[in-house]
Amino acid sequence: MRATLMYGAGDVRVEDVPDSVIKQPTDALVRVTTSCICGSDLWPYGSMSPADGPARMGHEFIGIVEDTGSEVTTVKRGDLVVAPFAYSDGTCEFCREGLQTSCVHGAFWDVEPEEGGQAEAVRVPLADGTLVKLPVAADSALMPSLLTLSDVFGTGYHAAVAGGVNERTRVTVIGDGAVGLMAVLSAKRLGAEQIVLMGRHTARTDLGREFGATDVVSARGEEGITAVRELAGGHGTHVVLEAVGNMPAYEQALGVVRPGGVISRVGVPQYEEAPIGFGSLFGHNIRLAGGPAPARAYIEELMPDILDGTIEPGRVFDATTDLDGVPAGYQDMADRKSLKVLIKP
Amino acid sequence: MRATLMYGAGDVRVEDVPDSVIKQPTDALVRVTTSCICGSDLWPYGSMSPADGPARMGHEFIGIVEDTGSEVTTVKRGDLVVAPFAYSDGTCEFCREGLQTSCVHGAFWDVEPEEGGQAEAVRVPLADGTLVKLPVAADSALMPSLLTLSDVFGTGYHAAVAGGVNERTRVTVIGDGAVGLMAVLSAKRLGAEQIVLMGRHTARTDLGREFGATDVVSARGEEGITAVRELAGGHGTHVVLEAVGNMPAYEQALGVVRPGGVISRVGVPQYEEAPIGFGSLFGHNIRLAGGPAPARAYIEELMPDILDGTIEPGRVFDATTDLDGVPAGYQDMADRKSLKVLIKP
């Protein structure tokens, strides 16, 4: 079968690899029908050392179950399923609490060196806990939106939920990438009073307005902070959804969060240490929340709104390719020519 | 009148200073009947540069109103009142939300260079928003417990409230100082299922057990972390109340907090940067909460339990002095000979 491998920064290749097969009785083998490239794939695309490669890529996919291990009971051959970006057993104490990304038996896809979603097929561990059956056909026009349940929509929604967004909150969203736009859509869904989107790519912020942003601030740094604070009544917003992950985004968040407010991070931090002392978080009781989204926890909750057409998160996909086009898709996303690239293997 | 001044690290003096007087129509002049030395006073006592002194000390006091400005309506001459460690107007948007430490007109006492609680009298700005009348006489045996409402009890309680402690939470309290012990009492009051107190001073941890600690761990570092995690079922506790403020305490908190849990800090951070990336907070969705306690917000809520004898937070005071003994009181607290020193000016 064919799969995507990253050999190092800027070096993505699609190659023949051994077919994925069932190995554990809890596995399912899924023939991928739709997958995509993630904004988080761009971090290694920008910096990965060849010594860490080659790595199988992709953690968002929909596909048809082709085979199952002997213990799998919730999905069967022929089912169309969506997989979240981390697999989980569905039964441990963390899964039961909705924190599947901390499942005691689960993991992120990158611990499976021979599997990845940007491929023709994937062996899915812990299939019962991980996969969710989709009540549509594989050629449904809803496929792009349903695919966002595997990561970006769940991640944006997690930011909003972890940030405690409700109808009394003013919200700033930092980042106009796919996750940032999903955070806007999620804040809107939770009824936020005001949603200020910080971003400078007009096509993206325009989509953000359609998703529910009430204001757009393109300025960055002190100028951007001043603009957001003025829009939000002078003291900043109750909630900041940080959907980028680098230090400038964190500093921006510190600048626009209101005393007593919360910074909810879902952009994977590209830093370990950051300011949290009296002058940043502590002095005004600013809270920090977020982490890898337990996307699995939100699939059943978010799917109905997609199925009935209430929301269309799949609009974040602005390009489609087959596997051959994946390397160019990475480059287009890195160049900001594409917002998010859908893959039809 | 006489007041306490800190001239630098280790150099505390009680001196004659100009009498405090009403300056603003919103001021009250309070004759101090009971005050105390705070654990946070020990930070400058350990490190203050003489260039930053002399500084008036003390931010916890009870006293009798001696005079009021023309606009003060809620307290009058002769009232016995308690003051929280920050003054606030009681009317701004943050005060109305119970975040009086971020009051737009308020401040901590250290911005008032000529006032402090370790003195015979204090000019209290924004008296209507700040002071709370006590329904007892100044010689009541409840005085030590009522004084804890000005800071340490409110601070411990804030840690527990900000950490979301309830009857389903396991809690670790880091630090067996007065605030840590108040955090234990507060977690108990909120019904915590388990309260593990980390501390190594037996007299203090014994008091912690009386306040509600179910377990005491005296080990620190990796050994202490392992012990707490084992006590808490293997994954750490849902909530960590960090009542110290230095980096080892923060690192300890990271070690004992459960995935999806919260570190609630009320020890004033002696650091600005700290680990919050994937390997510390982010990877397991660990939240960070806390800050300076809006002690004013909790006074009415906590006072009844003191008045009816349900709780006795004043047991954290293990020494009493007059003003002359304040310098020795600082040294005794720094030497851990005293837990917390009450002052009867």
TrEMBL record, chains A, B:
Keyword field contains Zinc: yes
Domain of life assignment: Bacteria
Gene3D superfamilies: Medium-chain alcohol dehydrogenases, catalytic domain, NAD(P)-binding Rossmann-like Domain
Domain Alcohol dehydrogenase-like N-terminal, first and last residues per copy: 25-135
Domain Alcohol dehydrogenase-like C-terminal: 178-302
InterPro entries, per database record: ADH-like_C, ADH-like_N, ADH_Zn_CS, GroES-like_sf, NAD(P)-bd_dom_sf
A Pfam family hit: ADH_N
Keywords: Metal-binding, Oxidoreductase, Zinc
Listed cofactors: Zn(2+)
Family that this chain belongs to: Belongs to the zinc-containing alcohol dehydrogenase family.
Protein name as catalogued: Zinc-dependent alcohol dehydrogenase family protein
Organism: Streptomyces olivaceiscleroticus
